[in-house]
Design a protein that fits this description.
alpha/beta; disordered N terminus; 17% strand; Arc Repressor Mutant, subunit A; 9 strands; homodimer; DNA-binding; 2 domains
DNA sequence: TTTTTTAGGTTATTATATGAACAGCATGTC
DNA sequence: GACATGCTGTTCATATAATAACCTAAAAAA
């Protein structure tokens, strides 16, 4: 079970690797390096055994009796996740959320770079947001080819999301992050991550009703 | 296991209830009402058996041999989730994401209403975004008491998130939605939902690297 | 009516994820 | 250099979740 190419690693482990990476970045910023599974796990709100197990899917990164070097571990996690390189992305939907994404500096720092944005609103087309030009959807094929775009981000209203996803897929984009609160149908060779904020609020409401 | 107050219902079931609700809303908008577990489940990308099981935690909502009434089921799910009432909320952090949240109409439609926003930037204090006034953080206690605020939303930078959460908790807010990419420490009688967009991108990168 | 069909509810099985316990290696100490 | 200590890597038991199979009720057809 130690091969990096093993596909049977739980998705939630991948998710937590991202959490660990973020935590390690902050830890390094504070000028420290040596960190134990205990400390890193607590910072992420998980069990230390789970952290060690998550890492063990991919190899051995610590030193027994000592702990982990934050720098080394971060580098390893980045290699595992693929965040040690740049990922050119396009955005569809330059509304408020789209604006937020285009300006989200933490994405850029991790190598996720928007090379272009798209919208159907003529008032938005031609504008520049955070150095990123807003095109009409028709320009998508050209841009994708030109910049070898691999990730498409959807921040459109619900009812446009599937259509945009289909366009992305048609142009060969294999990774989609969807912020529209609707689930996207897609072939198995395309990876889609959904993020539905509205459901977070539903969950909060549910648990608030039942506190005590 | 059929009591609505049973706390041992999996969190992921609650999450899916939110998905079902959204799907049902769209279904009703198309003017239809009768829907089978098969159709609803497929629209949400889940297994029909899972949908039926999720619902069975809370009672019986369908008619055997027939299906569900979308309207009735939606009403039931809303009562379960607590989205059949209004939830007054406050926002901390009026950056791009904060703006997006204040303008997110789908939240309002579901009863989640921002009554005030807060920021530390003097340039933002006093502004009005989508009819919502931006206050200095010092005003928090007064606003929370005045509007009986039950949910606090964090859209600040990482390093301010914990401090804001502590303020929320100090004022008696029991539900927090955190969009800052850091995990919030909180007592057990406070409910926190985290949403970290950056990790979605990490996951996409991971799976893109391993396609084929 | 009786039969057949349909689709929800329920139980059983399988798969997955978590947490605790322990084995094993590096470091520091006497 | 032997020994004690500390923290990782790994295994295993438990808990949780997903799927499949089955049972039952309602509606439609014969």
């Amino acid at each position: 079970m130690n091969s990096m190419s093993d596909f049977r690693i739980p998705g939630i482990t991948i998710y937590r690797l991202g959490m660990y990476a973020r935590s390690l970045e902050r830890f390094l910023q504070e000028g420290r390096d040596l960190i134990s599974s205990e400390e890193l796990a607590r910072a992420c709100g998980v069990n230390p055994a789970q952290l060690r197990k998550d890492l063990s899917y991919f190899g051995q990164f610590g030193v027994r009796g000592v702990g982990y070097s934050a720098q080394t571990l971060l580098k390893s996690i980045r290699r595992i996740l693929g965040t040690d390189r740049e990922w050119p992305m396009v955005l569809a939907g330059v509304g408020h959320l789209g604006h937020a994404l285009l300006s989200y500096e933490i994405l850029t720092r991790r190598g996720f770079k928007f090379v272009a944005a798209f919208d159907v609103d003529p008032a938005k087309i031609g504008k520049v947001v955070n150095d990123i030009y807003v095109y009409a959807m028709e320009q998508l094929p050209y841009i994708v080819r030109e910049h070898r775009v691999e990730i498409g981000v959807i921040a459109t209203p619900c009812d446009a999301a599937q259509e945009v996803a289909d366009s992305f897929i048609r142009e060969g984009i294999k990774g989609i992050v969807n912020f529209a609160p609707t689930s996207i149908k897609h072939p198995p060779n395309v990876v889609v991550e959904q993020s539905d904020m509205t459901i977070l609020f539903d969950k909060i409401a549910y648990y608030l009703l039942r506190l005590d």
